[in-house]
Automatic annotation (TrEMBL):
The protein's name in its UniProt record: Aldehyde dehydrogenase
CDD domains documented for this protein: ALDH_AldA-AAD23400
Domain of life: Bacteria
Source organism (scientific name): Streptomyces globisporus
Domain Aldehyde dehydrogenase: 14-452
Gene3D superfamilies cross-referenced by the UniProt entry: Aldehyde Dehydrogenase, Chain A, domain 1 (3.40.605.10), Aldehyde Dehydrogenase, Chain A, domain 2 (3.40.309.10)
A Pfam family of this chain: Aldedh
Active site: residue positions: E238
UniProt keyword annotation of Transferase present: no
Family stated for the protein in its record: Belongs to the aldehyde dehydrogenase family.
Signal peptide: none
């Protein structure tokens, strides 16, 4: 295939689409509905900016540090807008902004290290690293800023440029973030584009893109991979999970109940690596259900901008309908709601925090990723049964084991088929660690130095140790 040659910039289309407030279900603003012509402009500018951006690591590091400062300074503007379009409590929006700034600082201090190969030959062989070119970052609506930075921070640190597309459900805070970062980054290094489909498909398959990084559903991930394959672009896909928490028979239920509850219900359950099913020893099952249900009944559900809110709405009507459908199916098949079990009778996309018991193990609320404030608790007799059930899924993102004997818990944890496992906590990630899934939870690795090198290509230079005739 001939190399991509960016052409002249065509005219912009100028159409717009509405952005809805999840707490009311009503439109409160608009965003540009950009299309193929504007995408071509963004990729062309990314190519032009790449020529100089890739050549000066010190300047890149300084720009990323300045970007982190700019993000923190813009927190009072970014956080309310993020809450307004995503739905999460304001405190969680501020936490997301802090994580975005922290990731920029972490990658500003990261640089690829050349490596010498010593294999006994009279040749000095050195592995160096080169950037790939423009990277496409396609970001979902659950953590718009945090997941955006998880993609663009390592890509930019590696010397690539980025064209970033947020979800059409949450475009506004991302656009504002782009405006904030424009003061710290050269033009064309990071470009935000917003729009409805087929914009994402066009970006993934654009001939000027050399790496596509995507977070979202398995079906869309497959489509993204197929689009990227047309130009043989590298792919990194994070496609969700159905994380299991296994409670051992020595677990202190009351001690871990709060941690377990929020591991499942934070961000209204809209977390790829949230606890989405709990396996409890039969003799402790009822106590676990009771403890989780008590917290579900007590949590304050409301609009994210309300100071007392602990749990906001689901982000969109489609996701609310999915959660309702899975819950109704489980109840129809014999499950019992120890708490919740229904949407809330108010404007917006609110669903009661729900704890389910007596759930058939083949119910979709157990086997699929419900991605909402619904948690099934299932009993088991032997630990082997719990491990087998935890692994009996097409997903493999994360998992956790909870118990007093840490050595025993770690031994059980080592049997889980997932990319990350936690003991007595869940869904806590260091910026320095790799993040990856197995099975249908994804392709490639993000996070830490693995995320940096995933945005680079090795370049090997062989030099003789002495002149040869």
């Amino acid at each position: 295939m001939a190399p991509y040659q960016p052409g002249p910039a065509p005219a912009a289309a100028g159409e717009r689409f509405s952005v809805l407030d999840p707490a009311t279900g009503e439109a409160f603003d608009e965003a540009p509905d950009q299309r193929a012509q504007e995408l071509d402009v963004a990729v062309r500018r990314a190519h032009e900016a790449w020529r100089s951006w890739r050549s000066d690591p010190a300047a890149r590091a300084a720009a990323l540090l300045a970007s982190a400062d700019a993000v923190e300074a813009a927190g009072p503007e970014l956080a309310p807008l993020l809450t307004r379009e995503q739905g999460k409590p304001l405190t969680e929006s501020y936490a997301e902004i802090a994580r975005t700034a922290a990731r920029l600082r972490w990658f500003a201090a990261s640089a690829p290290e050349p490596r010498t190969i010593q294999d006994g030959r009279a040749v000095h062989s050195e592995i160096r690293w080169r950037s790939l070119g423009p990277v496409a970052a396609i970001v979902p609506w659950n953590f718009p800023l945090q997941l955006a930075s998880a993609k663009f921070a390592p890509a930019l640190a590696a010397g690539n440029t980025v064209v970033l597309k947020p979800s059409p459900f949450t475009p506004l805070a991302t656009r504002l973030l782009g405006s904030v970062l424009s003061a710290a980054l050269p033009e064309g290094v990071l470009t935000m584009i917003t729009g409805r489909e087929p914009l994402g498909a066009l970006l993934a398959s654009h001939p000027g893109i050399r790496h596509v990084t995507f977070t979202g559903s398995v079906p869309t991930g497959r489509a993204v991979a197929a689009g990227a394959a047309s130009g043989l672009a590298r792919i990194t896909l994070e496609l969700g999970g159905n994380d299991a928490a296994i409670l051992l028979d020595d677990v202190d239920v009351e001690r871990i109940a709060d941690r377990l509850f929020w591991a499942a219900f934070r961000n209204c359950g809209q977390v790829c690596m949230a606890v989405k099913r709990v396996y409890a020893p039969a003799r402790l099952h009822d106590r676990v259900v009771e403890a989780l249900a008590a917290r579900a009944k007590a949590v304050v559900v409301g609009a994210g901008l309300d100071p007392g809110t602990e749990l906001g709405p689901l982000n969109n009507a489609t996701q609310l309908a999915r959660v309702e459908r899975y819950t109704a199916r489980a109840l129809a098949d014999g499950a019992r709601a120890a708490a919740g079990g229904h949407r809330l009778d108010r404007p917006g996309w609110f669903h009661a925090p729900t704890v389910l018991t007596d759930v058939p193990p083949d119910s979709p609320v157990v086997t699929e990723e419900q991605f909402g404030p619904v948690l099934p608790v299932l009993p088991y007799g032997r630990v082997d049964e719990a491990v087998d059930a935890a692994n009996a899924t097409r997903f493999g993102l994360g998992g956790s084991v909870w118990g007093t004997d840490l050595d025993r818990a770690e031994a059980v944890a080592g049997r889980l088929e997932c990319g990350t496992v936690w003991i007595n906590h869940h869904a806590e990630l260091s910026l320095a660690q790799p993040f990856a899934g197995v099975k249908e939870s994804g392709v490639g690795v993000a996070g830490g130095p693995w995320g940096l090198y995933g945005n680079l290509s090795p370049f090997v230079v062989h030099r003789p140790l002495e002149d040869r005739p």
